Amino acid sequence: MSTNLEAIKALGVSDVMFNKKRGLEVPDMVKNSWVYKQLTKFRAGIEAGISWLTRVFGLRRCNWSSFHSFKAYTWVSVVSPNLLIIARATLP
Predict the structure, then answer these.
(1) What is the mean pLDDT of residues 40-68?
(2) Four-residue CA torsion sign, 66, 68, 74, 79
(3) pTM exceeding the 0.85 threshold for the entire prediction
(4) Concatenated DSSP letters for 38-51?
(5) What is the pLDDT of residues 57-78, one digit of tens each?
(6) Does residue 17 contact residue 40 with C-beta atoms inside 8 Å?
(7) Residue 66 and residue 13: Cα distance in Å, rounded?
(8) Which residue, 65, 86, 20, 24, is CA-closest to 73?
(9) Average pLDDT, whole number, for the chain?
């Protein structure tokens, strides 16, 4: 097993899914292949959401000067899509 996998397992995480297995076996990471497939699908969904945020709402690179303004930039970039989804859902 890799050092990352051993460290995560030592923290008590039972199921882990890495993007690239790199010599790791699926039974070492998760209980069974069904869990591995579910984690793979979850990761794909998260990456699709992040891609949408970067393409549509400009969550790419923050050139603002302080940590406070960085938090504001990130908050606005994440809240804006949620407001759009709510607005679309309330349209007749």
Answers:
(1) 84
(2) negative
(3) no
(4) HHHHHHHHHHHHHH
(5) 777 777 778 899 888 888 888 8
(6) yes
(7) 34
(8) 65
(9) 83
Residue 27, class by beta-carbon neighbours within 10 Å (0-12 exposed, 13-18 middle, 19+ buried)?
exposed
Q: In the numeric block, which tokens belong to residue 36?
A: 């591995």
Which of 60, 61, 41, 40 is closest to 50 using CA atoms? 60
| CB under 8 A, 24+ apart: contacts of 72-79 | 77/53, 78/53
Triad 21, 22, 28: Cα angle to 5°: 55
- What is the phi/psi pair of residue 63, to 5°? -100, 10
Two tokens, residue 91: 């349209």
Residues 6+ apart with CB under 8 A from 80: 57
10 Å Cβ neighbour count for 14? 10
- Residue 50, both tokens: 């992040």
> What is the spatial distance between Cα 48 and Cα 63, in angstroms, rounded to a whole number?
24
